[in-house]
C-alpha cells in the first residue's frame, strides 16, 4: 500500500534506534565518540544523536546506502572487522537494552539538507499516515512542510518514508538554533493562517504523531 513516486536511484537510509540502559548512557556515548570512526570507515553516517526530550536513554543514527547490495557488503565487512567487533561491539552490547531499525527513502520532493551552522538542536517528528504512501498524502504533506519552511524559524534536513518497518511512517528532521528558538517559532506558526490551513489539509491523512528533541554527538556529521 505504501506506493507512489520516489527517487529514480536505489539510495536508501537505514534508521537505527537503540534504547540504552539508564545507568550506561554516559558510557555508551563515550564509547561511540571514541571508536565510531571504525564504523564510518565502512559506509556513510548521516547523523548520530541522543534524545533529550520525547524519550529517555535513546540514541538514533542514520546511514546512507547506494542499494541493498551495498548494505549487505558493508554488513559482511563489519562482521569481519576485528577492531570494530572488539573495540566497539563487544563492550557496547551489554549497554543496550533494545535495538530497532527501519529502511526509508527520501520523499521524491526532498533532498537531504544541512544546518546553516553547528551548535543547534534537531527535532525528529514521526508521522503515522493513512495507508497509501506519497501517492495519497504527498501533495498535502509537502504543502504543510513548505509552509513551515516559509515561516523561516526552522531548517528542513530531510523527509523520509518507510520501506521496511512500520509502513506509512514518515520521519521529518528539522534543525533549530535552540529549543527556545523552536518554541517561539512554533508559537508564531500556530497563529499564521497559512500554516493552519495547510496543516488542516494534511491531517486528513494522519493517524498519529510523535516528536523528539535530539542532541548531536561529537562524531555526527550533522551537528
TrEMBL record:
Name one cellular component (GO) term: mitochondrion
GO annotation terms (biological process): mitophagy
Family membership noted in the UniProt record: Belongs to the NipSnap family.
Record-annotated NIPSNAP domain positions: 13-111, 122-221
Which branch of life, at top level?
A: Eukaryota
UniProt protein name: NPS3A protein
- Annotated Gene3D superfamilies: 3.30.70.100
Amino acid at each position: 500500500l505504501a506506493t507512489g513516486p520516489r527517487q529514480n536511484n536505489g539510495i536508501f537510509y537505514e534508521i537505527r534506534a537503540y534504547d540504552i540502559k539508564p545507568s550506561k548512557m554516559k558510557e555508551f556515548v563515550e564509547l561511540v565518540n571514541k571508536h565510531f570512526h571504525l564504523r564510518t570507515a565502512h559506509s556513510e553516517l548521516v547523523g548520530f544523536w541522543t534524545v533529550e526530550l520525547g524519550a529517555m536513554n535513546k540514541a538514533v543514527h542514520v546511514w546512507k546506502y547506494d542499494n541493498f547490495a551495498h548494505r549487505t557488503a558493508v554488513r559482511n565487512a563489519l562482521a569481519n572487522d576485528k577492531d570494530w567487533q572488539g573495540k566497539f561491539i563487544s563492550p557496547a552490547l551489554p549497554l543496550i537494552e533494545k535495538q530497532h531499525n527501519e529502511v526509508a527513502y527520501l520523499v521524491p520532493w526532498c533532498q537531504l539538507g544541512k544546518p546553516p551552522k553547528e551548535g543547534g538542536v534537531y527535532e525528529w517528528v514521526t508521522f503515522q499516515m493513512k495507508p497509501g504512501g506519497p501517492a495519497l498524502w504527498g501533495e498535502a504533506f509537502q504543502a504543510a512542510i513548505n509552509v513551515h519552511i516559509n515561516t523561516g524559524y526552522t531548517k528542513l534536513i530531510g523527509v523520509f518514508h518507510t520501506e521496511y518497518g512500520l509502513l506509512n511512517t514518515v520521519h521529518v528532521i528539522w534543525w533549530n538554533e535552540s529549543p527556545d528558538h523552536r518554541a517561539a517559532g512554533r508559537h508564531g506558526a500556530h497563529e499564521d493562517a497559512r500554516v493552519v490551513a495547510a496543516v488542516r489539509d494534511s491531517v486528513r491523512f494522519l493517524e498519529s504523531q510523535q516528536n523528539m528533541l535530539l542532541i548531536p554527538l561529537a562524531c555526527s556529521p550533522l551537528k
